[in-house]
């Protein structure tokens, strides 16, 4: 639909759901779900031409790949696992700071001599000789597993597809080892499994992802500018502090030098006269060093505040995506 709505796919359940709604709310994008909790469609309050669809995290990855959804929030693990050509199908716009999970290779703790991927070759050979069968890996990350094992030159194995409770597979005898996600490590420990020293396949977190295969007409691009504009403005504001001060009545404050030194901007220009108000925007980490330099140079009434949104003429998120859409 060249002039249809922009389809925004949002997690409908699980660990990503609450964090995703909070993320949109911070960006001033209020999700309005349809009539009941079972209505899986909604809107963005005050933003026309956007249709919100509530889907599972893995379905969001699929719909971004096929172009059924334009924008979505999902885990990078699911993108890398389900999309054969992630680079050509989607653009990962920004990591969101939640949904952290690491995809790992884990083996029984009882295998004390097995510490690294290279040790698995020996295990596999022994299994073959003693029991006449291949090393079994339980996982739902079939593609990530194949790629990682190939990179490590381990070829003599068989994948047992697991639909859940993967960590239980070795104890129940349906596999020898597993590939799964872990966050705190509690589930691995409870199942007496350990991560191989070089067994980290991917460190994942939730991302804002755009589809490159969806049809991007005029109305979708317009909605995209609004949505990404607010998201970028919130992100910029979160990483920035606003510092206000009065220019000293005498002495010479080298404002250009100080701002360059601390990577700060003067969004409203140079103050025009002594005693005039200075407004600086600087990276959060630079705040106190910048304040010290201002005070040392005679600035008075220095105050620091957080800002909610910082809109600029440029928007790196949109520019990057439009460049890729051509
Ligand atoms: N500790 C965790 N356990 C599971 N998923 C996590 C964890 N931490 C972050 N995540 C992220 O959440 C995603 C899974 O989300 P969720 O379980 O809601 O959806 P799903 O996998 O599509 O559904 P289902 O689990 O019912 O198959 C993971 O792929 C990962 O990106
Ligand atoms: O390292 P931990 O903090 O213990 O977390 C990791 C576990 O959490 C998830 O399972 P979940 O409970 O979501 O069930 P699921 O497999 O059905 O998604 C994941 O699949 C792991 O099993
Ligand atoms: Mg889950």
Automatic annotation (TrEMBL):
Per UniProt, the keywords (alphabetical) are: Amino-acid biosynthesis, ATP-binding, Cytoplasm, Glycosyltransferase, Histidine biosynthesis, Magnesium, Metal-binding, Nucleotide-binding, Transferase
UniProt keyword annotation of Magnesium present: yes
- InterPro entries from the entry? ATP-PRT_HisG_long, ATP_PRibTrfase_cat, ATP_PRibTrfase_CS, ATP_PRibTrfase_HisG
Q: In which pathway does it act?
A: Amino-acid biosynthesis; L-histidine biosynthesis; L-histidine from 5-phospho-alpha-D-ribose 1-diphosphate: step 1/9
Task: Provide the protein's localization.
Answer: Cytoplasm
* EC number(s) given by UniProt: 2.4.2.17
Enzyme class (EC, first level) = transferase
Which cofactors go with this protein? Mg(2+)
Q: By what means is the activity of this protein regulated?
A: Feedback inhibited by histidine.
Which is an annotated GO molecular function term of this record? ATP phosphoribosyltransferase activity
> Where in the numbering of this chain does the ATP phosphoribosyltransferase catalytic domain appear?
57-231
The reaction(s) annotated as catalysed by this protein in its Swiss-Prot or TrEMBL entry are:
1-(5-phospho-beta-D-ribosyl)-ATP + diphosphate = 5-phospho-alpha-D-ribose 1-diphosphate + ATP
Check the record and name the Pfam families matching this protein: HisG
Does the record's keyword annotation contain Glycoprotein?
no
**What job does the chain carry out?**
Catalyzes the condensation of ATP and 5-phosphoribose 1-diphosphate to form N'-(5'-phosphoribosyl)-ATP (PR-ATP). Has a crucial role in the pathway because the rate of histidine biosynthesis seems to be controlled primarily by regulation of HisG enzymatic activity.
Annotated family: Belongs to the ATP phosphoribosyltransferase family. Long subfamily. Belongs to the ATP phosphoribosyltransferase family. Short subfamily.
Name of the molecule in the record:
ATP phosphoribosyltransferase
From which organism does this entry originate?
Answer: Methylobacterium marchantiae
Taxonomic placement: Bacteria, Pseudomonadati, Pseudomonadota, Alphaproteobacteria, Hyphomicrobiales
